[in-house]
Fold these 2 entries.
Entry 1:
Amino acid sequence: MRRLTWFNATSLTLGFAFLYLPMVILIIYSFNASKLVTVWAGFSTRWYGTLLQNQAFLDAAWVTLRVAVVSSTIATVLGTMAALVLVRAGRFVGRTLFSGMIYAPLVMPEVITGLSLLLLFIGIGLDRGVFTIILAHTTFSMCYVSVVVSSRLATFDRSLEEAALDLGCSPAEAFRLVTLPIIAPAVIAGWLLAFTLSLDDLVIASFTAGPSATTLPIKIWSSIRLGSAPRSTRSPPS
Amino acid sequence: MRRALLILVPYLWLLALFLIPFLIVFKISLSDGALAIPPYTPTLDLSAGWEGIREFLTDLDFENFVFLSTDDLYWKAYLSSLQIAVISTAITLLVGYPIAYGMASAPDHWRPTLMMLVILPFWTSFLIRVYSWMGILSTEGYLNQLLIWLGLISGPLTILNTNTAVYIGIVYTYLPFMILPIYAALERMDGSLLEAAEDLGCSRITAFWLVTVPLSRNGIVAGCFLVFIPAIGEFVIPSLLGGSRTLMIGKVLWEEFFNNRDWPVASAVAVILLLILIVPIILFQRNEQKSREAEE
Amino acid sequence: MLFRPGAHADRSRQQRDTHGADRFRALERSGGGTAHPVPGVTKRFGDFTAIDNLSFDIYEKEFFALLGPSGCGKTTMMRMLAGFEAPSEGSILLGGQDIAPIPPNRRPVNMMFQSYALFPHLSVWENIAFGLKRDRMEKDRINARVAEMLKLTRLEQFASRKPHQISGGQRQRVALARSLAKAPKLLLLDEPMGALDAKLRQKTQFELMDIQEKTGTTFVIVTHDQEEAMTVASRVAVMDQGRIVQADTPARIYEQPNSVYVADFIGEVTIIDGTANPEGDGYEIAYAEGVPPLFVATDKKFARGQACHLAIRPEKVAISAERPEGRRNVLRGRILDIAYLGNISTYLVELPHGKVIKAQTANTRRLAHRPFTWEDEVWLSWSDTAAVLLEG
């Protein structure tokens, strides 16, 4: 396992080239003065200027940011709770259903999740907007958080918590003073994952956004589809 | 008490926002389209009491499913989605496994960096990454420019707006989902196992097939499901990279919903897709649970 | 079984004194009475009974060891004392109060974990102060107490390090300091030296005894290492399948085991099965056809012809080339195997009818002068009081 042969080195090089070349090309061409994607006409930041002057884009970016911050924060709390349930709670009625509802959203096609949430919101008469996008994003990203946190919890040495209890902590104190600081990296990683998933989401946001709120991916989508000002759609790496 | 609260909060959230919505989708798939808001009938009128519920139930039927089965557009869309998902999952595995293997055999101090490099693309916009492939694959795109410049081809190849472009797009976007679980499985593997296999008479290659592959099985299974299941319902990639002849069910559902505004048919499409996916999803969940229990 | 001190006191007179027995007798003299009785607890996990109606007393300021193979229930017993498991039946009294219903964080009992369970995100100082802070102790008193603990465990210069920045032996001392800081009535140590190498372990055992004496805390140690239990503890309870088979001073456990299990578990022993026949102040043990019986002096009572086991420690078996004079237990055999351990050698001697007996000699002479080798015919002998007669 620990031998980096020429084969391994080649597959790593080719693999990472495949992953990164498209992004590198795009970044370079986002500084292209020409309006055509495939023709280089000198260095320019005019597309970034255009982007910063486009009020609709800025509004969409603001909506996206708000949705991402709020939904990833709620998702982190719920996902951490769900991870504790998965790893710690032992048996309870409906455990299989619970773990099914944690894992299924990871792979569920977005069109299904989006459609079903939309029909729910309409069914209960909830006006679509920032709030409904937050609910939708929280739901699927909490599952990612819970997977990240539960894999950390699974290797967590329970005797650390027992030691805290032994030294006089209440169970809540033991969680706050010992468990949480130790799993914090996983919780933060979960938050970041939830945050980027939310920033990036097009399909679910399209279903649940409604006319009052437009997110950045929706805005980018429509400009790609319309084929206008293509490179101004380049969003900064989130 | 504390335990009950801990279980109930995420449980109720997921029931309300994940499970119940599916039941609503199922219900609406049994309704008829209508020019109304919401655009379907019947709607449940609880104020009419039992009579309302009875009337509501009798108005539900499987008409939309009958419609789906008669129009071969849908059947073809399901089949071609399955085909595209299977082929691209296989390619992703073939591309991803050597990368994961290379990462696992890299020196310890490189690994966090390599790991970071796999995760980093998640942090850039998915749409933009797919969009950049449009620039690469189009007839006057970078790939054709490069191939012509190298003299390998005389005229540009048509790649964009074909299924090939969709395969490339899916493999590219889902590659990290394949690499990460396989890498996790390989990294945990004890290196002395391979030495033991070689000591007992295996060649490098037989040792790989008899030891490494079986031990990374959970990772391979997880990776394949993580690519296969979402790829079936993929919408963005076939819309941007695929052509008018590329049929994928996610695209069909989107169009039924947003362009035709036929919510009951869109729901019926979703219900059948869900039925197709339910077995792989259960297998995926079992696999995850098993590997987590093995960890504990 | 409920251990009662004094019941066997007269029988310990002629025993080899060990450190533990010494300290225990000092304890008896000072009148250290029963402090923490465990009057019959039971713990079941489903159908499996981990602790079966176990009763024992732990005395104030003593060093008590629960010794047994893995799976014998000693860890479960310790976790019940700490409060991580609730007894299915019975109670645990600490200073006259039943602590069974008290959660671990309110018990005046602290535990040193096998994995040490040091908080990786806190420094050595913060780890030791952790329990004191939970008691809302004043800053000055915390500082003083932590400083005292650091001094006791010789960790002063590591106070600001994190657990992963110190050695295994230092980590072990941090764990000890942390659990001692709250001055518990009972300190539980779960395999405290399990993670240390042999050399360090021995040094640490003496340190532990030293600290126990200095602080006057009651220590309860759980271990599967009989040598460790014998070294550190003033009393050892040998456990098997959820029961205490014998609880006594190390010397009595070794010299007067009450069962084949204890005799076999502690140290090396040869067990000879036979039947007892009263003779003089002891019994003649018939153990094979056509050979004279062995004799053992004992005040235990056996019926004529009762099945019994004779346990004989190898160091009490003399090995010689000539037939020794004036001993009743003399056997002839052939050397089957020799284990040379440096300071001593163990001989496996096969008797004509196939029984193998272990004999040990101290290697007072250099190897070249060793008197016996493989296949030698030798004489084995032991005194009337050397063997222990046990019921079948």
Entry 2:
Amino acid sequence: MSKLTLETEGDRFVVVRRRFAASPEEVYRAHLDPEILREWLLGPDGWTMPVCVVDPRPGGEIRYEWSNGEGGGFHLTGEFVELDPPHRIVHVERMHLPDPTPDNHVVTTFTADGDGTLMTMRMTLPDAQTREAMLSTGMEHGMEASYARLERTPGWGDATPGSP
Amino acid sequence: MPPRASLDATLTALSDPTRRAILARLASGEATVSELAEPFAISQPAISRHIRVLADAGLIAQRVDGTRRPCRLAKGALDELDDYLAMLRTALEANYDRLDRVLARRAKGKAKPR
């Protein structure tokens, strides 16, 4: 299975890399087609996306609304900045928790890699207050079982003595 | 989880390049205030103010050693960032594992047209 890497770049950005066994055209499309997005952009098991609005042109609207099926949910709005099919998507997004979080600037690139695609997503690292809002919202909505502390990201916090 | 006030203090503390440089220096070990002031073209009282901001945010700790007050990184100071990145990673892994299955199903549908 393909492994995701997640690295901080300075204190402003997070860079995520992931390989997919499909062409850049297919992976690019899966990021813009509402029918496909609603199948995978969901977070923990049991969540659905009843509303998925995607208008892939510069200035076009993005709106995702998620529901946990038990009255819990939140939504995200955004706008596309630049589209270069099937190589690159630039967009801005914010979560509504319900107050909007500061804009997250996201650049996603898709590069052919053998018979697959290497996706690189560079996004804004939210400030501490926003991170706390996201963490506490996750917990209010019962995500803790899926999300909380399953894996520690190396390079931050206290190191275990004797670890490399 | 620390209270919100502490997170605001962390955010403020990390927003300044001098304070980030101080943290980077302390990552390689304990240092005195004058050692920390050395690389910067600012006064020792100014450095002391930065150190106080970092200490109030719980990012560094100081101990008393005679007349010296050596500083070190506080253990677990950045746990909240760690927690956020862990949550992000887990959410993305769940999404992309699902996307793998969606892409595989779509490829199969294409390979075997009706």
